[in-house]
Amino acid sequence: MNYKRILLKLSGESLMGNKPFGIDPERVNQYAKDIKAVAESGVEVAIVIGGGNIHRGLDAEKGGMDRVQADYMGMLATVINSMALQDALEKVGMKTRLLSAIKMEQICEPFIRRRAVRHLEKGRVVIFGAGTGNPYFTTDTAASLRAIEIEADVVLKGTRVDGIYTADPEKDPEAVRFDNISFQEVYAKNLNVMDMTAFTLCQENKLPIIVFDMNKPGNFMKIAKGESIGTLVQ
Ligand code: UDP
């Protein structure tokens, strides 16, 4: 395997599968099987999930809601998604721990870095819920931050697109995928990989990012083995 410890970021929307909202159990089960395969091959896996399938702070603010209130709701949405994935992982026989940035003792452990690392060393799949625990941030930033804190080798951004393109491949048929790209080039070409806070955090801490298509079964394993099926930013 190419990595010892990885952080996988999944968007909330990816959990919707083909449904218009909420959580598609089929999609979550596919992710659980893919994660199991990688974790059982000896790679330590930590996960951050977004909440966009349920609630987004910025959108709610546009509708008139107080931004901070709306962001806390978004963070709670990530815990719901995390619990869904935790359940699916346990159904396929994985040992898991959900650690939340906002205390909810009946449901999950509080986020404590040393405890997260210990769980990973014991082979448990660790899910980080509630983002960073702070409003005005995103779960991409939570993914970068947690990856740095637990000294992950890489952040894997699992999306429905198989990498970073010269233009939006869903709109422009001429768009070409990059196999490799530098942080500088992403800035210079104004490409959308993660939000700026998340992206800069990775750059400043020399944490590589790989964007890949998580919806194709088996892809996560290929990435973990070091196959070049996405875009590597470093
Ligand atoms: N959020 C937040 N702080 C964080 C992480 C998330 O306030 O550290 C809120 C924010 O309102 C965001 C929502 O949670 O819109 C859902 O997260 P995100 O938009 O990152 O989810 P994704 O787009 O990955 O599904």
TrEMBL record:
Question: This chain belongs to which protein, by name?
Answer: Uridylate kinase
**Record's catalysed reaction(s):** UMP + ATP = UDP + ADP
Q: What are the alphabetically sorted keywords of the record?
A: ATP-binding, Cytoplasm, Kinase, Nucleotide-binding, Pyrimidine biosynthesis, Transferase
Q: Name one Pfam family in it.
A: AA_kinase
PANTHER family, from UniProt? URIDYLATE KINASE, URIDYLATE KINASE PUMPKIN, CHLOROPLASTIC
**Localization per record:** Cytoplasm
Ranked from the top, the taxonomy reads: Bacteria, Pseudomonadati, Bacteroidota, Sphingobacteriia, Sphingobacteriales
Q: Which organism is it from?
A: Solitalea koreensis
Task: List the gene name.
Answer: pyrH
NCBIfam families from the UniProt entry: pyrH_bact
What is its biological role? Catalyzes the reversible phosphorylation of UMP to UDP.
Q: How does it assemble?
A: Homohexamer.
Where's the Aspartate/glutamate/uridylate kinase domain? 4-213
What CDD domains would the database entry show?
AAK_UMPK-PyrH-Ec
InterPro entries per the UniProt record, alphabetical: AceGlu_kinase-like_sf (IPR036393), Asp/Glu/Uridylate_kinase (IPR001048), Uridylate_kinase (IPR011817), Uridylate_kinase_bac (IPR015963)
Q: Binding positions for ATP?
A: K9, L10, S11, G12, G52, R56, T159, Y165, D168
**What family is reported?**
Belongs to the UMP kinase family.
Which biological processes are named by the entry's GO terms? Answer: 'de novo' CTP biosynthetic process; UDP biosynthetic process
Molecular function (GO) terms for this protein are:
ATP binding; UMP kinase activity
Q: How is its activity regulated?
A: Inhibited by UTP.
The entry marks the following residues as binding UMP, namely G51, D71, T132, G133, N134, P135, Y136, F137, T138, T139
Lineage: superkingdom: Bacteria
GO CC term (a single one) = cytoplasm
Q: In which pathway does it act?
A: Pyrimidine metabolism; CTP biosynthesis via de novo pathway; UDP from UMP (UMPK route): step 1/1
Documented EC number(s): 2.7.4.22
Query: Looking at the keywords, is ATP-binding present?
Result: yes
